[in-house]
User: Which sequence fits this backbone?
């Protein structure tokens, strides 16, 4: 069940980031309009779209544990920033909750990832 939950959540996150990443890069009219309403410049779509696609690829590929950690962090930064941007620009509560729900799904994917996809290393002590 854990493996199924991991793959289901990971595939959903990768699909969401691939779809929106491509929507930013192409750019799809309603996505470009939405980003403009949030106050982002047009060039930001290309930057964000590129990072979204790279993040989606990173969480799907085998190995690359450190890259996966960065990808998951970027995914959470993107989604929490999207929620905050919507809140700051007066969008409905639903439009704020949607990216937070997707962020929760990303955290499920991260938490359930198999040992071979985890970053292992010496713990750093701060004292």
Assistant:
């Amino acid at each position: 069940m854990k493996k199924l939950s991991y793959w289901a959540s990971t595939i959903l996150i990768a699909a969401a980031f691939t779809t929106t990443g491509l929507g930013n890069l192409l750019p799809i009219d309603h996505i470009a309009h939405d980003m403009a309403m949030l106050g982002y410049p047009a060039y930001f779509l290309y930057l964000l779209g590129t990072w979204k696609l790279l993040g989606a690829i990173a969480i799907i590929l085998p190995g690359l544990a450190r890259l996966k950690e960065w990808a998951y962090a970027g995914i959470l930064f993107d989604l929490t920033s999207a929620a905050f941007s919507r809140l700051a620009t007066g969008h409905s509560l639903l439009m704020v909750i949607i990216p937070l729900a997707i962020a929760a799904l990303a955290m499920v994917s991260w938490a359930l990832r198999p040992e071979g996809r985890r970053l292992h290393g010496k713990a750093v002590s701060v004292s």
Observations:
- The helical segments are 2-25, 29-37, 43-60, 65-88, 93-112.
